[in-house]
UniProtKB/TrEMBL annotation:
Record bears the keyword Protease: no
Keyword hit for Transferase: yes
Transmembrane segments: none
InterPro entries, per database record: Ppm1/Ppm2/Tcmp, SAM-dependent_MTases_sf, TcmP-like
Molecular functions per Gene Ontology: methyltransferase activity
Pfam families: LCM
Entry keywords, A to Z: Methyltransferase, Transferase
Protein name according to UniProt: O-methyltransferase
GO BP term, pick one: methylation
Highest taxon listed in the record's lineage: Bacteria
Amino acid sequence: MTDTSAAKVDGSALTGVSETALLTLQVRASEARRRDSLIDDPMAVELVDKIDFDFAKFGPSRRQDMALRAKGFDLYTRRYLHDHPRATVVALAEGLQTSFYRLDASDVGHEFRWLTVDLPPMIELRGKLLPPSDRVQVCAQSALDFSWMDRVDDSEGVFVTAEGLLMYLQPEEAMSLIAACAQRFPGGQMMFDLPPSWFAWWARHGMRTSLRYKVPPMPFSLSVGELAELTDSVPGVRAVHDLPLPEGRGKVLNALLWTIQRIPVFDPVRPVWTLLEFG
């Protein structure tokens, strides 16, 4: 009998915020295994099976939020790539997302380029787990080290994703990253997600997903109104779009999502998905 555990890759090098990549991967893979899955993500399933890690520490993995987030980021990235099929997608703090492989299997062609920017331990782990592609480059550094911008070919368009990143930065760091992207990539777009202020407060004061796992602090959040003001406060931001979440599974959930995203009274308490246009 073959010992399959010997072939697994150790995931214990990821700590702090980087460790959340394992949590989101586990939830995405759990969703992808369902017959009625919200996303088709066979690579996520393969990665979970390849990684030697105590995923049970995160608590229940049967939840839709991370799959909905991946589905939404895929949707708007695809829209940009339909109009700019040779563009470069820059995935900041990509973690163990498998977005490139999902998009490459979709209807956007195979000419777009990809740049993964993440810390060295994450880049090393991705290198052990993911199949290589001559269209994927990596930068083993913080997204706040703006030298990664020198690696971006913006001649055919740029779409920057900050999926699950900005909330873990200090406010001045997050705003400096947005401002730098706006200045450097006119004509490009940037998409990011942020929790509501009450959720960020809870994370800063010890939110847990299980008795063994405490969520890292989230210093940064913006309300819908504050995001709308970015066109006036950040040079280079031409338009701000407050994006609706894609449909999930279940009539009650979808009715709730529809309601909180369309009635202004809920704006201060709901998460935001934002698309910025630069120009």
